[in-house]
Amino acid sequence: MGKQSKTPLLQVEKLVKSFGGLMALFGVNFEIHPGEIFSVIGPNGSGKTTLFNIITGFLKANSGKVTFMGKDITGLPPHQICRQGIARIFQLVKPFHQLTTLQNVMVGRAYGKDPATNLRKSKEEVVEILNFVGLGNKIEVVASQLTMAERKRLELARALAAHPQLLLLDELMAGLNSAETEIAMELVKKIRGSGITVMMVEHIMKAVLGISDRIMALNIGEKIAEGLPKDVVKNQLVIEAYLGK
Amino acid sequence: MLEIERINVSYGDLQVLWDVFFEVKKEEIVALIGPNSAGKTTTLKTVSGLLRPFAGEIRFEGLAMGNMPIHKRVEMGISLVPEGRGLFPGMSTLENLELGAFTAKGRNCKEETLEQVYQLFPILKKRKKQAAGTLSGGEQQMLAIGRGLMSKPKLLLFDEPSWGLSPLLSKVIYEVIGEINHSGVTILLIEQNVRMALQLAKRAYVIENGRIVKHGDGRNMLNDQHIREVYLGTESV
Amino acid sequence: MSSHRKNIFLGLGIAILLALVPLLTKRNDIINIMVLIFLYICLAQSWNILAGYTGQVSLGHAAFFGLGAITTRILWVGGYPFLMAFTTGGLVAVVFALIVGHPALRLRGIYFAIGTLGLAQILKITVGNILPTVADLPGDYIATYNLIPRYYLFLILAVIMVVVVYLVGHSKLGLGMVAVREDEEAAEASGVNPFRQKMISLAISSFFAGLAGGAFAFYQVSYYHDLPFSPTWTFDALLITFVGGVGTIVGPIIGAFFYAIFREFFARAFPELHVFIFGTLFILVVLLLPGGLVEAVSRIRRLIRAKKTDTGFS
Amino acid sequence: MNLQVSAQSLIFGIFVGGLYGLAAVGLSLVFGVMKMLNVAHGELLMLGGYVTFWFFSLYHIDPFLSLLPSAFVLFLIGMGLYKGLFSPLAKLHEEVKIKNSLLIGFGLSLVFHNLAIRLWTADERSVSVFYSGWGFSLFGLRFPFIRLAGLVLATIVILALQQFLTKTYFGKAIRATTENWESAALMGINIEKTSMVSFALGAALAAMAGTIVSVGYAIHPAMGLEWTLKALIVVVLAGLGNIGGAFVAGVLLGGVESVSALFVGPYMEVVGLVIFLLVLELRPQGLFGKRSE
Amino acid sequence: MRKISIIAVSGIFLIMGLSSLGLAASTKEAPKTIKVGSSCSLTGPFGSGGAMCKAGYDIAIDDINKKGGVFVKEFNKKIPLELFLLDDESNMTLTVSRMETLYSTNDVVAYLGGFSSPIHAAQAPIAEKNKVPFLMVGTYLYSVHQKGYKYNFSPFPKSPDCAKAVFELLDSIAAGQKPKKAAIFMEKAPVGMELGDMWKSESVKHGYGEPLYRDQPREMKDFSPLIMAAKAEGAEILLTGPTTPEGITMTKQIKELDYNPKFYFAYRAPDPIAWGQALGKDGDYVVLGPGWNSGLKFPGVKELNESHMKKFNRPADVMTGPAYACIQVLAHAIEKAGTLDRAKIRDAIASTNMMTVIGPLTFRPDGTGVVVYFCVQWQKGKQEVIFPKQYATAPFIFPMPKWSER
After folding, report:
1. Cα–Cα dist B49/B54, whole Å
2. The CATH number of the domain where E75 resides is what?
3. I want to staple B81 with a disulfide (CB 3.0 to 4.6 A). Which of B148, E21, E73, E195 is the partner?
4. Residue C159: pLDDT over 90
C-alpha cells in the first residue's frame, strides 16, 4: 500500500489524443502519489503506450494537462521532461547498439537530472547502477551483443542513471520467464524502496498483482477501472476487456 | 503437415530461439502462446522464410525447406498474416487482395476466392477502391486475413489476429478463423489473447524465452496452473 | 586510462614523424601529396563529426569549406595578418552554419542530404557570379611562395582536427552525439536534446571545414573563387570517410591516404586508364569491406590473434 | 520582358523539364524499390545517349526509332550491374545499404566515364536528324518537332510506366515491394527478381532520357554528374519513391529555371534551388510525398 | 595490437606512395632524354580539348625524335625528348599536384599546358614558383599574363586578339551590308568577362552601338531566354562563348526558334571537329577563332596533317597545331640555349623568332605570343580560314543564310 500524501507526484487530467480519426485516449484522468507503484493494464491498443508517450513528451496530446510535482509539463520536449525527473524505458527496447553498456548508461547519467559533467568521476556510480540491475559483468560489452533480457536491464539502468523521481516502465517483464519475472519484481520493489515512484504498463498479471499498489485499467482509450489490485481484477469490465467474454 | 525440428534462430549475434519444435497436422488449428518477445513472431517468420534457422529443420508436407526462398514457400501453400498486418498502405484494398493472389495458383482462381473473401468480410467490397492505409484497424485486419486467403494457402499462419482490436471485433475475427479452418485450411496462430486462442485451438504450444516449455490440448491448457499463473493471473476468474 | 595514454603517444609519434618529412626530403611532390592528404583528413574528419558521430549525412560540406576559403583569401590578400584571416574564415563558416542549421536540421535522412546539397549549390552559383575573377596572389607572393609553411599549417590543422575529434569522441558531448545517431528517441528519453547536439556538431564541423578552406586558400596559388564551393569537395569528404570507416577516428585518416595515394599512383602508372582502374578498385573495396578500410585493420588484427591462439582449435 | 518571350522560354523550359523528370523517374524507382541510391544514374543516361548515337552513326537508325532498342541495351546492362554489384547489398541494413550503394555508384561512374572516353573519345556528340530544327508556330510561339516529340515520348513512357505499375501483376509487385518488401515476399513475390527488373527499368529509363538528350542537346563522357545531381533534386522535390510526381516535379523545375533565366540570368538555378528548399521546409515529405506518421 | 596494425597499414600506404614516386637522378652526365611534362585533362569536362593537345605533343615529339632528338651543345649530342603527360581529371587542385609531381619526380625541363582557362589559371603560378618554362595553348585568358610572371608563354591568341579581329572582320563587310546591333552572351567567368567587356567596347568603338549583353548561366540546357532576347532586340551579330555541348544545344535552339543573326561568332564551342559531326549542316557559317587550322600553308602543316591522318584518320585538330608549335618552340629554344638549364631555356623562349606550324611567332614581354589571329568559318562541314585574307582558304560567307533558306 503506497503512502498517500496530499500532493500527487504526477497528475493527469482529461487527456485526449487521436491519430487521424482514431481516438487513442479519451479523457483519461488519474494521479500518482510519491512512493507508490502504479500499474496500467489493458488489452493491446487500449492506449497504454500512447499515455506513456504523452507523459514523456514524445507525443502531443490534443487536449488535457500533465502536472509533475506541481509543475505543468504538458507539451515539453522529452529531454526536458527527463531532466525534470521522469525517466522511462521503451516497450521495444532502444539501446544505443554500437555503444558499450557503460556508455549506454553514461548517457543517462550525463544528460538526465543533475547531469554529470565529468564522465570519469561518475563512472563509479554508473557501474554501481549496472551492478544493481545485474549487468555488472558486462560493462564493456557492446549493446548489440546483449540478449533481449539483458537489453531490458540495460534500458532500466539507463533510465535509473537519469536520477528520476518517477520511472515509467513499459512492459519491463515482457519476454521474461517466471524466474526472471520474480527477479524483475524484486528489482522494481527495490527501486521503489530507494524512493523512486514507479508507473508501469504490464501484461504479466502475476507481476502486476504482485507488486502494484494501485492499478488503472484502460480499454480503447478509456479508463474502465482504477483501484486496489484485488478490486480491479474482479471488475467485470476488466475481465471482459482483457480476457474476452 | 508442418514439422518443426529443433530450430535455432538468431538476429545477428543475438540468439532468440533454442531448439524450438512442434508440428501442425492437416486441418488442425494450433496455437503458439507465450509472453511478448518470447519468440512467437520469430517462429512464424522462420516458418515463412523471412528468417533462416542456423540449425534445425522445417518440413512442409514432408519436404525439407532448407534455404527455400520466401516466395517459393508461398507457392507451396504457406501464407502468413503478419503482425501489424503488413498491408501496402498506399495501394487500394482491391490491389492488396490481388497481390495476395500473386502466385500462379492464386491467380488461377482469383475471382472465385475474391468472392469468398467478400462473403467473409462484406465491408471489404465496399472499401475496395480505398487505400489500405485509410481503413480502420478492424478493416485492416480483415483485409490482412482476406489477403492471406487469396493465395489459396494450405497452411495459414496468423500473427496476433486480435492485435489492436476491440473484444467484439476479435470475436468476429476468431469466428472467421474458425470458418476458414472448416473450409479445410490448416491454421497456426500466435496470440496474446490466450483465452480466445486456447478456446479455438485444438492443440497449443507454450513458448517462453525462445524455448517450447509445454504443449497439449487447447482446452486443457486453459485449466493448466502454469498458464493461469502466467497469462491469466492467479487471482482472476 | 592506459589506452588513452597509448593513443596519445601513438598520435604524437606519428605527428612528429610527419613533422620531420620536410627535413628528410626536398621533393615538392611528396610534400604536395602530403598536403593533399592532410587536406583530405581535415575535410573528411570535419564531415565525420557531423555525419559519422551525429548521424547527419550532409552534402553541403563544400559550402563551409568555400566560405572559409573565400574569407581567408580576401582578407589575407587584402593585407590582414594571415592567422586573423584564417580564423575569421572558420568563424564565417560557423555563422553561416548557425543561420542555416535551424531550418536544415529539421529535415531527416536523404531530405537533409539533398537539402544541404541545394544550399551549397546556391552559394556556389552566387559566389561564382559575384566574384567571377581568378583568385590569384600578387606576383611578389609567388616569388616567395614556399610549400613548407603550407605543409606545417595543414599538418597542424589535421593534428588539431584529429585531436578535437578524439576529445569530442571521449567527452560528454560526443556521448550525446553518438546517442543521437544511434537512436534519437532513446537519447531524448535520457535527457539529450537532439537538436542542440546536432547544432553543436554542425558548428564544430563547419568551423573546421572553414579552417580547411582557409588553409586551402593559403596553399592554392591561383583558382576561380567558386572552386572551393564545388560539390566535389563534399563528395571527396564523404567518399574518404565512408571508404575509410565512418564514425571512427582512424577511418578518415586511412581513407585519405588511400584516396590520395592510390589515385596519384594510378594516374602516374596508367595515364589513360587510371580513372577506370581506381573506380574498379574502389568498388572492390566496398564489396569486400562493407565496413570500410578500418575493417581491413580489424581483420588483420583478428588474423594475428587467430594465429596466436591457433594451437587449441582445429 | 514581353509576354511572348516569357511564354517561349516557359515552353522550352518544359521541354528540358520533361528530361529532368524522365531522368529522375528512373532514380526514384530504384530508390523506392531497393532503398539504394545509384549515383551512377547520370552515367547510365550518358551510356544510353551513346548507344543511340551508335545506332544513328553506324546504322543510320532514327533516334526516335532507336529509343526502345537503346533502352533495351541499357536494360540488359542494368540487369548485369544489379546481379554483379548491387544484389550483394540487398541484405544489408538500410543505412549501410544506401551508403554502400552510393559508394559503388561512385566507383561505377568513374569506370563508365573512363570507358566512354576509350570507346567514343572525349568528344562531344549529338545526333542531328534531317528534320532537326523543324517545327511549327502557334500564336507566334515555336514548337520544334524533336523537342515536342521528346516531351511527348517522355510523357508516354511515364504514362506507360504508370499503367505498368498499376495495371499489371508485375508492376503491382514492384509497388508492393516499394511499400513493404517483407509483406511483398509473403505474397509470393520474388524480391530478387523484382529488384533486378526495377533496377534494369531504372537504367532503361535513364537510357531513354539519354536518347532524347542526344537529339536535342549534346552528350559527352563527363555529363553524368550534373544529371545525377539534377535527378536527385527532382526526386527529393517530388517526394521519395513517387514516380509520377517525379516527372511533374521535373517539368516544373525546368519551367521555373528557364523563365527565371529571363529575369535573373545567371542566378536561374538559384531560383529553382530556393523553391526546392522552400518546398522542403513547408512540406518536408516533398511535393507529392505522403506524410508518414 | 590494433594500433600496431593501423601503423602497419598506413606504413604500407606510405611505402607504396613513396616507392611509386621513384627516385630522381641528378647527375651531370648527359641525360638519356630531355623530359617535358604536361598536366593535361584526359578525363572530365575538358577531356576532348586535352586529347587534341596530347595529339599535338605526341606527334611533334615523334617528329623530332625521328631525327635523333634535340642537339644540346652542353653535352655535344642529340638527346631525344620524352613527354610525361599526367591526367588531371579536369580538376584544378589535382592539376597543381600533378605539376609538382612532374617537377619533382620527373624533373622536367619545361611544362606544356593542359586545356581550358581555369586549369591554366591554377597551373601558371606553379610554373612560376618552380621556375620552369611553361608553354600553354587552349586558353584565351589574358589576365594571367598580366601578373608579371616570367616563365609563362603562350603561342595562342588571347582575348584582346579575338576582340580586335572579330570587329576587323566585321569592318571588312561592304558598307551597305553591315549588320546592326550585337548580342553578347558570355559566362560570368574570367575569360567570359574579359572578352565580353572587350567586345562591348569594340562594338561601340566600331560603330555598332551598345550591344545587348546577357550573362550566360553555367551548364545551361535551355538557351531560349537568351536567344529570344536577342531576337526580340533584332540583334544581327551574335557573339558568344559557350562550351561545346552548350554550343551544340544553343545552335539547335537558334534554328528551332528561327533566330537569324547575320553573323554568329563563338569562341571555344565550334573548335573541335565534333561540332560539325554533331550539328551537320546546321553547324555551318559559324565563325570561330581557334588559333589555328589544318588548312594553313605554313611549313610543317602538311606533314603534321599526314601524321595525324595516320593516327586518327583525319587532319589535325585546332588545338593540335598550337600544341605542336609549343614543342617546336621548345626544341628550338633548347638548341639555342645549348643547355638544359631552365632559366636559360626560358630566356631562349622569350627571344623566339621563328616560323612554326601556326605561322611566324615571337613573344611579347608578358609572354603572350604575337600570333596571327585566324578567323575560321564552318563551311560545308569543314573549317575554312577566312581571315586574315592572305591566309584564307575560302571566302568569308556573309550574311549567314536564313534557316528557312538553307
Report:
1. 12
2. 3.40.50.2300
3. B148
4. yes
Say if residue E149 is in the same domain as residue E240. no
Within a domain: E86: yes
In a domain, E282, yes or no: yes
**pTM of the predicted structure, to 2 decimals:** 0.91
Q: In DSSP terms, which residues pair with B157 in a beta bridge?
A: B80, B188
Strands E182-187 and E212-216: parallel
Residues E179 and E258 in one domain: yes
Inside any domain, residue E5: no
Which residue of C145, C258, C304 is in closest CB contact with E13?
Answer: C258
Q: Do E255 and E391 belong together in one domain? A: yes
Does the beta carbon of D99 lie under 8 angstroms from any beta carbon of chain C? yes
CA distance E58 to D279: 53
Q: Are residues E127 and E66 in the same domain?
A: yes
Q: Chain-centre distance of CA D170, in angstroms?
A: 21
Q: Which residues pair with B63 in a beta bridge?
A: B60
Residues in D touching E257 (Cβ below 8 Å): 8, 142
State whether E278 and E348 are in the same domain. Answer: no
Rounded CA gap, C144 and B80, in Å? 76
Taking contacts as CB-CB distances below 8 angstroms, the residues of chain C near D285 are 111
Name the residue range of residue D229's domain.
Answer: 3-282
Q: Is D291 within a domain?
A: no
Do E229 and E303 fall into the same domain? no
DSSP three-state, residue B98: helix
Q: What are phi and psi of A190, to 5 degrees?
A: -65, -40
Interchain CB contact of D240 with C (< 8 Å): yes
Q: For residue E304, which amino acid is it? A: L
Q: Where residue D200 sits, what CATH number does that domain have?
A: 1.10.3470
**D102 within a domain of the structure (yes/no):** yes
- Indicate whether E199 and E338 sit together in one domain: no
> Domain range holding E173?
160-288+375-405
Which residues in C lie closer than 8 A to residue E189 (C-beta atoms)?
128, 132, 224
Q: Please tell me the total count of domains within chain D.
A: 1
**From the CB coordinates, do chains D and C have 3 or more pairs under 8 Å?**
yes
Query: Quick check: D132 and E222 CB within 8 A?
Result: no
User: Domain residue spans in chain C?
Assistant: 23-230
Cα–Cα dist C134/A23, whole Å: 64
Pick from B137, B229, B232: which is nearest to A22 by CB? B137
* Interface mutation vs chain E, best among D111, D115, D128, D141, most E CBs within 10 Å: D128
Query: Measured between beta carbons, which residues in chain C are less than 8 angstroms from residue A95?
Result: 182-183, 186
**pLDDT at residue A1, as a whole number:** 41
User: Could you say which of D180, D189, D290 has the minimum Cβ distance to residue B102?
Assistant: D189
**In chain B, what residues touch D192 (CB-CB under 8 Å)?**
69
pLDDT tens column, B50-100: 888 999 999 999 888 888 899 999 999 999 998 777 899 889 999 999 999
Burial C126-163 (b: 16+ CB within 10 A, else e): ebbbebbebbbbeeeebeebebeebbebbbebbbebbe
Give the span between the Cα atoms of D178 and B151, in whole angstroms. 20
Record: contact C192-A111, CB cut-off 8 A: yes
Q: Cα(E56)–Cα(E63) distance, rounded to whole angstroms?
A: 11
Along the 406 residues of chain E, how does pLDDT read in single tens digits? 455 555 555 555 555 555 545 444 444 688 999 999 999 999 999 999 999 999 999 999 999 999 999 999 999 999 999 999 999 999 999 999 999 999 988 999 999 999 999 999 999 999 999 999 999 999 999 999 998 899 999 999 999 999 999 999 999 999 889 999 999 999 999 999 999 999 999 999 999 999 999 999 988 999 999 999 999 999 999 999 999 999 999 999 999 999 999 999 999 999 999 999 999 999 999 999 999 999 999 999 999 999 999 999 999 999 999 999 999 999 999 999 999 999 999 999 999 999 999 999 999 999 999 999 999 999 999 999 999 999 999 999 999 999 999 8
Per-residue pLDDT tens digits for A186-237? 999 999 999 999 999 987 777 888 899 999 998 888 899 999 988 888 888 8
Please tell me whether residues E111 and E248 are part of one structural domain.
no
User: Would you say residue E142 lies in a domain?
Assistant: yes
